[in-house]
Every structure is written in structure tokens, then in C-alpha cells.
Amino acid sequence: MLICQGKKVLGDKCQKHEQCTGTPNAGDCMADPQDNVTSSCQCNPGFMTYNGTCLQVNKTLYEECVIDDQCNGTSDKEALVCRKIRHRKLCMCNSDYIEDNTYLECHHAKRKIHEECKLSEQCTGTDYANNCFKKGKDENEKGVCTCNNRYDLINGKCLKVRLNLFEPCINNKQCSGTDNAGNCTEIENNTLCYCQDEYLDFKGRCIKGSRTLNEDCEASIQCNGTKHAGVCGENHTCTCDKEFIRLKEGCLPEKENRLLLIAVGGGLFGLLSCSATILLFTMRRRKRSRTTRLDCSSSSRLPMRSIHYSVADNYVFGNLNDEEVNI
After folding, report:
1. b/e per residue, 196-219, with b = 16+ CB within 10 A?
2. How many CB atoms sit inside 10 A of residue 297's CB?
3. How many C-beta neighbours within 10 Å does residue 299 have?
4. Distance between CA atoms of 29 and 41, rounded to whole angstroms?
5. What is the pLDDT of residues 83-139, one digit of tens each?
6. Which of 140, 148, 240, 312 has the smallest CB count inside 10 Å?
7. Cα dihedral 101, 132, 93, 157 sign
8. Terminus-to-terminus CA distance in the chain, angstroms?
């Protein structure tokens, strides 16, 4: 008697493969994994059992899926998960990985400075170190995470460099954008790039300070190296302040200097007057053959303040007794 058997489904007992046609992708008649003796319909190679069905495994990035276990087609078996994207479920990289759309792979994310990488998107473990640097041009070559452009590794951190005057900073090495502004200094509760020692900020630049008398300058604030010489003159050199005049290597008040000149001039004038008087007396003596004593030695030792032009003028311009001269 011929017995007709229906289609065998997943898990049914069977004697041959041809019987297992009742469940898609479950066409293998093989020993039951439970007892390893009785044969039953099992999922084909490359498929897995799930709720009475056979699901394809070894799926890669962006392939449709039902459960996470299907998404194991990459070298890192834990890189993919089955995630709902709009109205579909797809194999996607999990939160610890980043998608490589070129090679449909998942790479470790949150890589830190100097750690191995293949894509710059992996380098998110260190702030401002989002660049995957490769020595060669081969796209498959692996690189290392490095600091971004205009950032340098300073004390284990990627810090912005080439900062200009008054830009925020935390380290002197950042302040290289303005010449001679290499100090990271606290100014009014802010840490900013500022001029180095002996330099002054002037119109967004740092210029040399402590300029002395007659040194080159471009602004008066530079001229603070010589007392009372705080003016940058028309010839762009440091000159004396108003009401001060230069004397040797310094600047003195103009009034005091004028009195000094008057005193010195008076003394010289007194000596010249005395000499002229002696000369005039000698000439008259020769003419009259008279002996007259004349002593001017004390005039050269007179205190400066006691010398007056009027007295000397009287001696020089003729107010002399014809018979005798007394000084």
C-alpha cells in the first residue's frame, strides 16, 4: 500500500532531504541536534532557526535583517546590530563603531590620540584629535589619530596654536600668532595671550619697551628707559619731555638748566671783563709810566650767584678813574 506523505516543515522527522519542503530554507534532513539519532528537517547552511523559520546569517553592513544574530558577516562579529531605519531593519554598526561606506565595514570608534585608525571619523576619543594621519596614499593603509589642523599636542592634550594677542589660552606654547606675544597671562580673570617681558601692546602688536634717550621708537609708550625722556619725536627717537632739555645722557628741567647756564655765563663774563680791564690798564700804564697795583685774582673765585652783568659792564665800557682802578 502506498502512503502519501505531505511536506515536512522545520523540525519534522524525515528520512531524506526531498521531504523537507514545507519551510523555506529548511531543506536539510539531518540528525536532530537534541538526540543526534533521529533525523529531522533543519535549516540550510548559512541560515539559523528563529521562531519556526530559517533566517539568513552572515549579513553585512546595510543588509536587511530581523535579529542581531544575522548581522555577523564582518570580521568583527560584534560590530553589527540589526537596527530599524525608518520602515526597514538593517544591519548597522553599533555605537562603538563607525561605518565605512567604501568597504562596507565597521571600524572601532572613540579612538584616542596616537591610536590606530583607518578613517578620521574613528578619532573621537581625544578632543580636537579627529585626524587619521597616514604616511602613504594607500586607502587600505592604517594610520594613527593626530591633532587637528592648527592644534598641537601639549601636555597630553590637543590645544589650538598660533593664537594672536588677547586670544584665550592655557599654555604659552599656544601664543605664537603675534610676534613677541608668547606669554599666556591672567588679565582681569581671563587667561589671554599677551606681550612678553619688556614688550608693550600697541595697535594689536607687541613693540619693544624700555627705550632710552635717542633710541628708535614708534610710540611714546616705548620711551620709558630714561627718566623724563618719554616722547617719541618726529625723527622716531626718544626725546626729552616738554619743559625738559637734554644734558649729556639725561634730561633736566629747562628752568634749572637756564639758571645754570646764566651762572656759568656770568662767571665767564666776569673773567673776560677782568682780563679786558687789566689789558686796558696796562696800555694806559705804558703811556703814563705810572705804577698802579691791580688785583683781579679774587674775581675768578667769586660765587656764581654774586656775579652780575651790570658791574662787569661798568668796568669794560669806560666807567674807570683815569688815575686808579680798584676791583
Report:
1. eeebbbeeeebbbbebbbebebee
2. 8
3. 19
4. 5
5. 999 899 999 999 899 998 888 889 999 999 999 999 999 999 999 999 999 987 777
6. 140
7. negative
8. 176
Confidence of residue 192 (pLDDT cuts 50, 70, 90): very high
Amino acid identity at 54: C
Where would I find the H helices in the chain? 254-288, 309-316
Residue 30: which H helix or E strand, with range? strand 28-31
Strand partners, 270: none
Q: Under a CB-based contact definition with an 8 Å cutoff, are residues 113 and 124 in contact?
A: no
**Does residue 13 contact residue 40 with C-beta atoms inside 8 Å?**
yes
Distance CA 260, CA 151 (A): 64
- pLDDT tens for each residue of 267-318: 555 566 666 667 776 666 666 554 444 444 444 444 444 444 433 344 333 4
Distances (CA, A) of 249 to 161, 213, 241, 260: 43, 7, 14, 17
Q: For residue 54, give the nearest of 74, 32, 70, 33 by alpha carbon.
A: 70
Other C-beta atoms closer than 10 Å to the C-beta of 165 total: 18
- d(C-alpha 229, C-alpha 237), whole Å: 10
| HSE-up of residue 76 (Cα within 13 Å, Cβ side) | 17
**C-beta of residue 35 within 8 angstroms of C-beta of residue 48:** no
Which element (helix H / strand E) includes 18? Answer: none
Cα gap 255→232, rounded to integer Å: 22
**28: closest CA among 17, 19, 38?**
17
Q: How far apart are CA 220 and CA 29, in angstroms?
A: 100
40 Cβ contact partners less than 8 Å away, ≥ 6 residues apart = 11, 12, 13, 14, 29, 30, 31, 32
